[in-house]
Structure formats: structure tokens, C-alpha cells
Design goal:
Layout: E1 2-8, E2 23-29, E3 38-47, H1 52-55, E4 75-85, E5 95-102, E6 106-110, E7 115-117, H2 135-147, E8 157-161, H3 166-178, E9 182-187, H4 190-199, E10 204-207, H5 213-220, E11 225-230, H6 234-242, E12 244-252, H7 271-280, E13 283-286, H8 296-308, E14 316-320, H9 325-333, E15 340-344
Parallel strand pairs: 8-9, 8-11, 9-10, 11-12, 12-13, 14-15
Antiparallel strand pairs: 1-2, 3-4, 3-6, 3-15, 4-5, 5-7
Length: 347
């Protein structure tokens, strides 16, 4: 059976910017016969995410994800449908998902590595299993709940960087729902600013490419900042931390501004910022959602209800075709997406 797949063609190097040529589209063939425990799946949609940048290096720098291998099929979050099965847990027609879905049009996978999902949970929007009702939504919800110390009635202000991305756009909405009186997003275009305010209920948004971030933060956060959901790191985060209140909280979710640099994760802070954290007793704790998977089922159920009821609005950027995987990944790393970047592979 002929299929198309995407392999890692070359590595950008620890300080390199990824380009589509780092990926290569290939034709390959699947064996016609399944072994016990195997299922044949047809890929419906795939996800590209910032954490994948470290998988392009020989050493990811973190213990919980492995590097992609040269000339081997790339993998990540995916959703598909079972076409045939020799696994008792999977039947033909089941919709299934995995964190380690190969970037192939069809694949033979172990049934035990797949999670069956119910399309009704997302009103048929199957790509939401890769975003707002998947690992991205979990990261936003549990990040805010476990590290944000949001308290109803406490007049708190939340700032989110990378706010128009898949995780940030949900995190700000969770902050508002959980009791923050203000949620201010920082993003990179006027279109993103409009999406955050008009579609996601943020109080305001700052275009970091055009606006004076310190001045805008002072204007939009007159009572200071109590919770900072950090997706970007670097200079933007230093600017936010400088305006945080005593006993406030940084949720260290991602550092996308640093991912193309050869620095440890999380990257070191300047002495000045470290002193600000100490002087104001600001907690800044790394958040890794995989450490909280015991809470995942209840959180995913809540996210499903919030999305279906319209309390959380989902932003998505979708392109079609497995040949677009490299382009979509590189565009996402440069902020070309609004919300979750999805690649639709088949219907």
C-alpha cells in the first residue's frame, strides 16, 4: 500500500532557524498484513508545536521528549481513523489519537499506543483533540490552576505572552473564567490583537512589534500584574516581570523566543530579573503538563464542556496536505499562526 511520509532531512543546528528544507516528503509502502495488536490508521490531521524545535537537535535538552532521527519519519500529535485492526481495543471506524503519530498519510501502529476518542466530545471538530481539548488545553488549564494562584474576588490581573498561540489563547480565557478581572495578551500582529479581544474575551492586547510594551502594560494593568503565563521568555518576559506585584506568580510554560538558541531550558535569567523575583517574592516555576496527567481526564472533560458551551472560543489556523508539514512548522515557529496550527491530511 503506497503512502506518503515526512522525514527529517537535516538538522538546523542548535542555533539554527528551521526551514522547510529540513524536512523531506517521501513515498513508502506499508506491508499489507497486520500482526497481532496492530491497527492500520488513516491520518486525519496532524499538529505542529513549539516543543518540536528541540526534537530537531541531536539532544533535546529535556528528559521527556526524544530527538527525531535523520531520514526517519517525524512524529507528533495526530488524530486518525482505524481502517483495519488486529487489536481487541480498536475497531474499524474508531477515531483515535496519539502524541507520537507518524507524519504519514496512513500508518500501522500498535493499538496499545492509541487513545480512542469520541467525536461528540468536540462536536465533530476532531482537530480540537490536538488543541483546546487535548494536550494544549490541558497545559493552559492545569498551568493556570496549578501555578497561577488565581482567586475569585481578588481583583487579579493576568498577562499572557504568546497569547495568540494555541496555549496562550486558551490560558487567558481560563484566567478570566477563574476570576481574573483583567487578561492582557501580548502578541505579534494587529490581526492577533483583534482575535484575542473580539473572539477570546481578553481585556486588551499589545502588539509587541509596534507598541511600547512597558508603557502599554502600565496603561492596561494599572494595579500591576498578579499572574503571568509565560510562553516566550526573553526580553518580553523581563519587561512583564519588572511590573509584577509582590507575591505574584509566573507560570513558566514555554520560551519560544529562545528555542533556536543553544541555551539550556529554561534559559538563565539576568541578575536584575533574579533580584526582582527575590525582592518581590515572585514565584516562577516551570510547568510541565506531563507531571499532572493524573488530573487529565477531569480537566479534558471540563475543557470539552467549556468549548461546547462557548465559554472557550478555539482559534485555529489550518492548511491542507502532508506536503505542507514543513512549511506549517516553520510558519508556526515564526508566529504565522493564530491559535493552533493544524495540518489536515484527509477527510
Amino acid at each position: 500500500m503506497p503512502v506518503q511520509r515526512v522525514v527529517l532531512n537535516s538538522r538546523p543546528g542548535n542555533n539554527g532557524v528551521p526551514v522547510p528544507a529540513h524536512f523531506r516528503l517521501e513515498e513508502t509502502t506499508l506491508a499489507p498484513d497486520l500482526e497481532d495488536g496492530d491497527v492500520l490508521v488513516r491520518t486525519l490531521c496532524l499538529s505542529v508545536d513549539p516543543y518540536m524545535r528541540c526534537r530537531m537537535n541531536e539532544d533535546t535538552g529535556v528528559g521527556y521528549v526524544t530527538p527525531w532521527q535523520l531520514s526517519e519519519c517525524v512524529d507528533g500529535g495526530g488524530v486518525g481513523v482505524v481502517e483495519s485492526s488486529r487489536c481487541s481495543a480498536c475497531s474499524e471506524g474508531d477515531v483515535v489519537t496519539s502524541f507520537n503519530w507518524p507524519w504519514q498519510t496512513k500508518a500501522v501502529m500498535k493499538g496499545s499506543a492509541l487513545q480512542k476518542v469520541d467525536p461528540q466530545v468536540v462536536d465533530g471538530h476532531l482537530s480540537y483533540f490536538l488543541g483546546a481539548v487535548g494536550i494544549t488545553g490541558l497545559t493552559a488549564l492545569l498551568g493556570v490552576r496549578e501555578k497561577g494562584n488565581v482567586t475569585k474576588g481578588a481583583n487579579q490581573t493576568m498577562v499572557v505572552s504568546g497569547a495568540a498561540g494555541a496555549c496562550g489563547s486558551v490560558a487567558g480565557q481560563i484566567g478570566r473564567l477563574d476570576g481574573c478581572v483583567r487578561a492582557v495578551g501580548i502578541c505579534g500582529s494587529e490581526e492577533k490583537c483583534r482575535a484575542l479581544v473580539d473572539d477570546c474575551g481578553f481585556s486588551a492586547a499589545i502588539n509587541y512589534r509596534k507598541e511600547d510594551i512597558p508603557a502599554k502594560l502600565q496603561e492596561l494593568c494599572p494595579d500591576g500584574i498578579d499572574v503571568y503565563f509565560d510562553n516566550v521568555g526573553g526580553g518580553i518576559s523581563d519587561t512583564v516581570i519588572a511590573q509584577m506585584n509582590n507575591n505574584s506568580h509566573v507560570i513558566l510554560c514555554g520560551q519560544i523566543s529562545q528555542y533556536n538558541k543553544d541555551v539550556p531550558y529554561p534559559p538563565p535569567l539576568s541578575e536584575e530579573i533574579q533580584e526582582t523575583l527575590r525582592r518581590k517574592n515572585i514565584t516562577r516555576e516551570r510547568f510541565t503538563v506531563l507531571n499532572y496527567m493524573n488530573k487529565a481526564d477531569a480537566a479534558l472533560c471540563e475543557l470539552s464542556q467549556l468549548v461546547k458551551s462557548g465559554h472557550i472560543n478555539v482559534l485555529e489556523t489550518a492548511v491542507e496536505g502532508i506536503e505542507k508539514m514543513g512549511d506549517a512548522f516553520c510558519s508556526m515557529m515564526k508566529g504565522g499562526n493564530i491559535g493552533k496550527q493544524i495540518i489536515k491530511i484527509s477527510e
